[in-house]
Amino acid sequence: MSETIETTPSGGCCGGGCCGMQQQPEQQAQAAQSRRETKAPAATGVHLETGAAVPSATPAAQAGPEHVEEAVAYDGILLSGFGGPEGQDDVLPFLRNVTRGRGIPDERLEEVATHYRHFQGVSPINQQNRDLKAALESALAVAGIDLPVYWGNRNWAPYLDEALQQADAAGATRLLAIPTSAYSSYSSCRQYREDWADALEATGLQATMQIDKVRQFFNHPGFLAPFVDGVRSTVDEARAAGFADAEIEVLFATHSIPTADAERSGAPDLHEWGPGGGYEAQHLAAAEHVMAEAAPGIGWQLVYQSRSGPPSQPWLEPDINDAIDALEARRAVVIVPLGFVSDHMEVMWDLDEEAIETATEAGLWARRAPTPGTDAQYVGALVDLVQERLEGRPVAERKAVTSIPAWYDVCRPGCCENPRLGFRPAIAGLQP
Ligand SMILES: CC1=C(CCC(=O)O)c2cc3nc(cc4[nH]c(cc5[nH]c(cc1n2)c(C)c5CCC(=O)O)c(CCC(=O)O)c4C)C(CCC(=O)O)=C3C
Ligand SMILES: [Fe+2]
């Protein structure tokens, strides 16, 4: 860990306020106590700036109300995507769906629409999810799990409502949902849970259908394995192109979110995350693991992309383009789309067009590593997440890497809420 930390300009556990450094003693004591009582996951290791040992919680998670350790006989899997347009006519209606209730001005939508227009209005995300569904179906069959996979999206057809209607028509009453999103935040966790609740209401299935969700899987080894492979081979490509290790920088890119959302991400009642909340901590832990496996000793940072919202509103930083411009001694950058499970517009535009252009203009060699997509290791991780819930596998035996143990099956109260958008009921939480 320390080797990675030394080479990490903005990476590491917190960049300032993490680990209780900015908390009042009373808050620290309370947080420490809740850690003891609940044996909650917490970062372990050495504080970046002070070098002091970070108080380590239990190395493996222990079951609490947020964990389900009993076997459940599910009737099907609800694969849940973001959704994306598949033609020019879909673009604006899709963008209005995504931003409904948020007051995002039309000029901003028009601006985002140009990214889609550039690709004939087609995002690859729906085809990625069709392929993922097919791969998941075969992998489940190979594992001897006889469950149908229903696929529905939050923001474009096929919608979650349709998937629930199909499941209901087949007689299903209990589904295990898989979001195509690995981390904790409003956009990547709570909003899925709210949209599942909405879909139950819209279809009138509230009383007859139960939806649970798999844990956030940012630290499942099968999810991270394609990133390990991608970093290893892209760093090798840079070396083959003649760059010394000290000239290579790995940039782990994820979606920026408002800092106000970040603070509420990832069970904030149980953890002393830094100002970037559980969202940032999970990404840092995942990136540290990937680097330790794939390219120990090479410099890396966590960077953010695709910021929107008014300039007055703080979002997580640094932006990937600013980070590229700030690179001094580096001549080659490896961009890793760590925050995303498949290719989609934010990968094709914000990374492959914009970030690569920024790097090229700065005279840097730049390549992007692949997203997991339908990599067999990632699909295997999804099968394992289903299997652990079917069998009620004890939390301590679940597969998890990084300094954070296996995440919760049931979200903590207040987890990933978004006060700007107001309260909406959600499934799979200790509070609705
Ligand atoms: C954390 C996160 C993920 C990763 C987790 C996950 O995968 O769920 C993600 C994924 C995606 N985001 C996507 C698209 C969009 N996201 C938007 C807006 C926003 N995303 C946010 C966050 C995230 N987004 C936030 C905080 C906003 C601002 C809204 C606000 O005001 O709070 C907008 C509106 C326009 C704009 O604001 O740019 C669009 C069109 C697509 C589909 C791309 C395609 O079609 O190929 C995907 C996979
Ligand atoms: Fe987004």
UniProtKB/TrEMBL annotation:
The residues that hold Fe(2+) are H255, E346
What domain of life?
Bacteria
EC number(s) given by UniProt: 4.99.1.9
Annotated pathway: Porphyrin-containing compound metabolism; protoheme biosynthesis
Catalytic reaction list = Fe-coproporphyrin III + 2 H(+) = coproporphyrin III + Fe(2+)
- Please, one GO biological process term? heme biosynthetic process
- Identify the GO cellular component terms for this protein: cytoplasm
Name its cellular compartments: Cytoplasm
Q: Which InterPro entries match?
A: Ferrochelatase, Ferrochelatase_C, Ferrochelatase_N
**What is the predominant subcellular site recorded for this chain?**
cytoplasm
Which Pfam families does the record cross-reference, listed alphabetically?
Ferrochelatase
* Classification via CDD domains: Ferrochelatase_C, Ferrochelatase_N
**Gene Ontology molecular functions:** ferrochelatase activity; metal ion binding
List UniProt keywords, sorted A-Z: Cytoplasm, Heme biosynthesis, Iron, Lyase, Metal-binding, Porphyrin biosynthesis
UniProt-annotated binding residues for Fe-coproporphyrin III: S123, Y192
Q: Which family does it belong to?
A: Belongs to the ferrochelatase family.
Query: PANTHER family of this UniProt entry?
Result: FERROCHELATASE, FERROCHELATASE, MITOCHONDRIAL
What is the recorded function of this protein according to its Swiss-Prot or TrEMBL entry? Involved in coproporphyrin-dependent heme b biosynthesis. Catalyzes the insertion of ferrous iron into coproporphyrin III to form Fe-coproporphyrin III.
Name the chain's protein. Coproporphyrin III ferrochelatase
Query: According to the entry, what is the taxonomic lineage of the organism?
Result: Bacteria, Bacillati, Actinomycetota, Actinomycetes, Micrococcales
Gene, per the UniProt record: hemH
